[in-house]
Specification:
transmembrane transporter activity
Length: about 190
Amino acid sequence: MRVLRRFIGAVDGVNYYTGRVVMYGIFVLMGILLWSSISKTFFLPSLWTLEMAQFVMVGYYILGGPYSIQLGSNVRMDLLYGEWSLRKKAWVDLFTVLFLIFYLGVLLWGALASTAYSLGFWGSNPLEFFGGLVTGSQEVGRLERSPTAWRPVMWPIKVVMIVGIFLMLLQCLSELFKDVLRLRGEAI
């Protein structure tokens, strides 16, 4: 149980501070959109603003998700759930979080494959590619670019997606372990 508590504390701490920093990304997004409006009104329109706003929004959303799960501020269908006892909620959460963990695992695999593709890997095993990058036996190929006029490389936002999905997966495991402790009658 001590290992579970340490895992919960470490994951909750990382996601808490990540979420607190990322929540200020809304101001970055507002600045980009403000510049977009000003440049379209008074100057030549900037090519980068719309896509950069999308990238910032992806980072804001995907890195803030684990913080939202941790605070319990995610959207729930609360028709019955709100009236249940803590023990019944823990049983239902324990069961449903397993589906979320499976889904996030599949999503993480897809994000790894997509990032490997954006770095020029055409094979079927992205872990082999990333292992080769670490050991130096694999080189980066032709970088994927966005098909827009600005044409930014895509791998940075895909790395943000990998990090966000991984943090969400860790937070879901933390919530799973919290439910296990609740069912055992232990304080969290």
